[in-house]
């Protein structure tokens, strides 16, 4: 896992540019995609920080984000988030 070089991601949302903080990127040889997790630092009704995730082609870069569609990709994202949580809790 690596932190996105820019650490910020600017996307068009509802016709307006919106800035997101990049939490992680994960290049996956198996799918040939890079998975990216990011947040706008807002919170859900239950107080959890909103997290978004997408995938992109490493050749094109994060200018064109794809939805994570398959069960396997969703499971991969969950595994990444568990590993991040474990690392944070262990002070790594």
Count of individual domains: 1
Q: What is the count of β-strands? A: 4
Radius of gyration: 13 Å
Poorly predicted spans: none
Helicity level: 10-25%
The average pLDDT is 88
| 3D shape | globular
Count of alpha and pi helical runs: 1
Which strand order do you get reading across the main beta sheet?
1-2-3-4
The major beta sheet can be summarized as: 4 strands, antiparallel
Strand percentage = 25-35%
Helix/strand order: EEEEH
Descriptive overview:
This protein is α+β, with helices and mostly antiparallel strands and 92 residues long. It has 1 helix and 4 strands; from the N terminus they run ββββα. The chain has one domain. Helix content is 21%, strand content 34%. A 4-stranded antiparallel β-sheet has the order 1-2-3-4, with no helix packed on it. The longest helix is centred in the last third of the chain and has 19 residues. The model has no long low-confidence stretch (mean pLDDT 88).
């Amino acid at each position: 896992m690596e932190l996105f070089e820019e650490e910020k991601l600017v996307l068009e949302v509802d016709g307006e540019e919106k800035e997101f903080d990049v939490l992680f990127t994960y290049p996956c040889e198996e799918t040939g995609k890079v998975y990216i997790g990011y947040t706008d630092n807002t919170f859900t009704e239950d107080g959890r920080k909103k997290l978004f995730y997408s995938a992109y082609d490493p050749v094109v870069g994060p200018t064109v984000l794809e939805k994570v569609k398959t069960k396997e990709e969703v499971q991969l994202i969950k595994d990444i988030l568990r590993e991040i949580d474990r690392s944070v809790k262990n002070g790594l």
